[in-house]
Amino acid sequence: MENLLFHWGLEGSGSKVFRVSKNGSDRIVRRYSYMDFDENDDEIWRQGEIEHPSFDVFWQEATVNKKWFSRHPVYIHDECKPVIRKSIDGIDMTGLTETELLAVDGWKKLL
Question: Are strands 25-37 and 13-22 parallel, antiparallel or unpaired?
């Protein structure tokens, strides 16, 4: 059984994080896709899957970039909202552009 915990994207890429339950154990799995180019400059879609020990570990890795909030949230499961809300509250709003401020507002609407 799979349960969607989180989904976000940016033009040309995106990822979804699932809790995968099987035989009484849970795994946190991130499935991602992104656009790349081959040697002829043709678009190629790449896909992959990475397992994380927990959603918190995924989120720590996902927010290393200080502009992580520029990605567009699509879905946030209720159990993930406190972790994400803490990251939103930690954003230094000083000097953000209007576009960045709107992006932060978009996150707040889902929380």
Answer: antiparallel
Query: For the CA atoms of the chain, what is the radius of gyration?
Result: 15
Instruction: Give the pLDDT mean for 73-86.
Output: 97
Distance CA 44, CA 29 (A): 23
Axis crossing angle, helix 81-89 with helix 98-110, rounded to the nearest 10: 150
CB 50 within 8 A of CB 30: yes
In sequence order, what DSSP letters do the residues of 47-79 get, joined into one string? Answer: EEEEEES-HHHHHHHHT-STTGGGSEEEEE-GG
How is residue 56 written in tokens?
């918190």
State pLDDT tens for residues 13-32: 899 999 999 888 999 999 99
Token output for 75: 């879905």
Global pTM reads 0.86
Question: Residue 56's pLDDT is what?
Answer: 96
Structure token pair of residue 66: 């200080």
Task: Decide: 3 and 18 in contact? Cβ < 8 Å.
Answer: yes
